[in-house]
Structure formats: structure tokens, C-alpha cells
Design a protein that fits this description.
Blueprint lengths: L6 H11 L3 E6 L7 H12 L5 E4 L9 H11 L4 E3 L13 E7 L5 H16 L4 E9 L7 H6 L9 H13 L4 E5 L10 H8 L6 E4 L5 H10 L3 E4 L1 H5 L22
Parallel strand pairs: 1-2, 1-8, 2-3, 3-4, 4-5, 5-6, 6-7, 7-8
Helix pairs in contact: 6-7, 7-8
Length: 257
């Protein structure tokens, strides 16, 4: 039987069941030389990772399509676009996070680039997931904050993050991506994730600053449906084989506000 469940439907199913997901973020701009690239693909394929995200803040070349093609050929996990630019919207991926930067006030990233990308996406057979993108963190600014020309939500004001998340869901967004930013020194605090989790009933994808199994467990236990690890894997690919997801469930409470 062919599984007709969409990527987003699967994410909702896992959220309600308390199942944990782990996504590996691949930045097309930081592709290693071919031997290391093939080694990374093999490690991801054999790991506990449930998803692979493709994208990044800085776009200087046009290799996203080649990266997605390699990933689809080598991996059993779904490949989901996490674009930093309309140029990173390519075919053959399983889904696209259609990101709206709701934590900032940069109109170009709230709707401007979406208008630019929409006709291109409409021509593709690509599941599109309306996603509220929320940068959360304190200085120094990460690459994501710098490139987006927006200030992140402050770590010591979880009530602002909650209000932002609620507004995004009221606007119809079906997923929230909470990001401390690529290479962040610290992950998003568990209390912030938990506060958002108990205020909205959509999946939470959490990334930035996650570098250990303990970091992942804290985020999952606080209510993350899917944790994203990128920089740590890029620096230490062997870490993949020590990360565990299967057989564990989140203890977070999901409510219907």
C-alpha cells in the first residue's frame, strides 16, 4: 500500500503521539569535498535522523538542486527545503517550508519574497508547508539574524515568543520553526519552548545551538516535535551515530488553546 500521508500530516501525527523527530540540516553553501560528502550521506542514511532539511541564510551559488538530487538518491529520509532565498526552491524535494519571518518586521521576509517565489512553486509538484519562522536569542547576532535584517526575540521574554507564535497560528500558519540561528552559542531555553508548546496546537521545529544528545532531549521534553542539528554534524559527522531518537517519546503537554 502506498502511504499517502503528507509530510505535514506526519508531523502532526507525531506531535499528537509525542513521537520525536530529528532533522539534519544541510547547507548547500557548505558542501564538503566529494569523499567527505559521500561519507556524510552514508552516515545520515544509517542514523536515527527522521528528516533532512536543505537550505541556509547565505546564497552565493546555485547548487541546491544538485544537493537535493544527491540526497534523494542516497537517503530513505524525506528531504525538506528550508530556503533562505527563492533560488533555493527547487524540484524533487518532498516538501517546502514556506517560511514567513514572524519574529521580525522585515516586510520582504514576511511576504515580499513569497510573492516572488509563489509562481515558481505553483508550477512544481511540491508540498508547501506554511511555516512561521521565529528567531530567538541574544547578542551576538547569528548569520540568520544578520542576513534577515531583523532582531531576534529576546531570550528573557518568553511571553513575546508566545504572543508571536499565537499570532502566527491565528494567521493560519501550520508549523512554527523556532531558531536560535546557525552556530548559536546556546540553544533556545526549554522554558520558552514549553511556553509556546502549551499555547498553540501546531508542530514545533526547533534548531540552533543543539550540539549534544542532552540538548536534543531537553528540547523534545519541552515540546519540540522535530529538533534540527546542522553545525554540530557539519563539524563532527561521527556524532550522527551516537544520537538516538527511536523508542523515545516527549513528555510535553500539547493543548488546544
Amino acid at each position: 500500500m502506498v502511504d499517502s500521508t503528507s509530510w505535514l500530516e506526519g508531523l502532526f501525527d507525531d506531535m499528537h503521539a509525542g513521537n520525536r523527530r530529528l532533522a539534519i540540516l544541510i547547507d548547500p553553501e557548505d558542501m564538503p569535498p566529494k569523499p567527505q560528502w559521500l561519507d556524510l550521506l552514508g552516515r545520515v542514511a544509517l542514523s536515527d535522523a527522521t528528516d533532512v532539511l536543505v537550505g541556509g541564510s547565505l546564497v552565493t551559488n546555485d547548487v541546491t538542486a544538485l544537493v537535493v538530487e544527491d540526497l534523494k538518491k542516497a537517503l530513505p529520509q524525506p528531504v525538506v527545503l528550508f530556503p533562505g532565498s527563492p533560488h533555493q526552491v527547487v524540484e524533487k524535494a518532498d516538501a517546502l517550508l514556506f517560511l514567513s519571518l514572524i519574529s521580525g518586521r522585515n516586510a520582504d521576509l514576511l511576504i515580499g519574497r513569497h510573492v516572488e517565489a509563489a509562481p515558481r512553486i505553483a508550477r512544481m509538484d511540491l508540498e508547501t508547508v506554511p511555516t512561521g519562522y521565529m528567531l530567538i536569542g541574544d547578542p551576538p547576532l547569528t548569520a540568520a539574524a544578520y542576513m534577515s535584517h531583523s532582531l531576534p526575540l529576546p531570550l528573557d521574554k518568553p511571553e513575546l515568543a508566545v504572543a508571536t507564535a499565537q499570532a502566527g497560528v491565528m494567521l493560519g500558519l501550520q508549523c512554527l520553526y523556532l531558531d536560535a540561528g546557525s552556530g548559536a552559542g546556546n540553544p533556545i531555553p526549554a522554558r520558552t519552548i514549553e511556553a509556546i508548546r502549551t499555547s498553540v496546537d501546531v508542530p514545533l521545529v526547533v534548531g540552533g545551538g543543539l550540539s549534544t544528545q542532552d540538548d536534543l532531549n531537553r528540547a523534545w521534553d519541552a515540546g519540540a516535535t522535530c529538533c534540527v542539528m546542522g553545525t554540530a554534524i557539519e563539524r563532527h559527522p561521527r556524532l550522527l551515530q551516537s544520537l538516538r531518537v527511536q523508542g523515545q517519546k516527549s513528555t510535553a503537554r500539547v493543548t488546544n488553546p
